[in-house]
Amino acid sequence: MYTVSVSKGYLALRTAKAYDDKNEIGELYTGDTVEVTDTSDSTYWYVYSAKLNKSGYVNRNYLVGGGSSTGGSNYTVSVSKGYLALRTAKAYDDKNEIGELYSGDTVQVQDSSDSTYWYVYSPKLNKSGYVNRNYLVGGGTANTGGASYTVSVSKGYLALRTAKAYDDKNEIGELYSGDTVQVQDSSDSTYWYVYSPKLNKSGYVNRNYLVGAGSSTPSVVTKTVSVSKGYLALRTAKAYDDSNEIGELYSGDTVQVQDTSDSTYWYVYAPKLNKSGYVNKNYLY
């Protein structure tokens, strides 16, 4: 299925591969769909229009999409302020706006061939049109959740933001150590776009405060604490400091390892304490 997209007027359905008023047998407007049956010509494709119940030729330059009628990849809108305009054409112009999309709204991408403007379907607006793809994040089917990560901050909270910037004005939520998020876009080196089940919101977070990685039901690696005396401290940070201790683990206690990327301090969950934090991995076996 392809979708008609014209900036004004209509796309003519024709009896021949030529621009001629005499061969027009129907009018197709933006949003109408057609089934392509022959793409051998570089300009005119032979299509079937269910709306007109007719077959004929159309100029293929005014068709977008090419997947099933159930839509393509799902992306989420992310704007720092205002809205993302849904447009009838690949141009920034007040006159071609046909809808407003806000942060958190989802769209189904039907054509991503252009470097800036993608053709999408908006379930919220029940309309198709062009949007600036730089304000879309994610990219998967509607039911994919992404890899799950756990928040780890030494103090305070990790802000969920509407933009990739450290600014009090863009904060839309607070995430604390132990909270989990599902990563939807990890293309940026610092700010990842995530979904927070706790807040039921999507936004940007500083990825340096996320640990772990896997599906929402990852396999668990269990380790046992072994100390010759005293206890193994569970900490809020990767450092030996009395002020960051949040629990005590003794020989025989078990932990579930969530992140092993550091050479000394691993991030673990302690069922005994019902807490997550860092421990010196040299005392685990």
Q: Report the CATH superfamily of the largest domain.
A: SH3 Domains
Number of helices: 0
> How much of the polypeptide forms β-strand, as a percent range?
over 45%
User: What is the approximate shape?
Assistant: elongated
State the order of secondary-structure elements, H for helix, E for strand. Answer: EEEEEEEEEEEEEEEEEEEEEEEEEEE
* Helix content range: under 10%
Low-confidence stretches: 67-71, 140-145, 214-219
Describe the 3D structure:
This protein has strands at residues 2-4, 11-14, 24-28, 33-38, 44-49, 54-59, 63-65, 74-77, 84-87, 97-101, 106-111, 117-122, 127-132, 136-140, 148-151, 158-161, 171-175, 180-185, 191-196, 201-206, 210-211, 221-224, 232-235, 245-249, 254-259, 265-270, 275-280. The chain has 4 domains: 2-65, SH3 type barrels, CATH 2.30.30.40; 74-140, SH3 type barrels; 148-211, SH3 type barrels (Roll), CATH 2.30.30.40; 221-283, SH3 Domains (SH3 type barrels), CATH 2.30.30.40. Residues 67-71, 140-145 and 214-219 have low confidence and may be disordered. A 5-stranded antiparallel beta sheet has the order 6-5-4-1-7, with no helix packed on it. It has a 5-stranded antiparallel beta sheet with strand order 13-12-11-8-14, with no helix packed on it. β4 and β5 form a beta hairpin. Helix content is 0%, strand content 47%. With 285 residues, it is mostly beta strands. It is elongated and about 95 Å long. The relative contact order is 0.10.
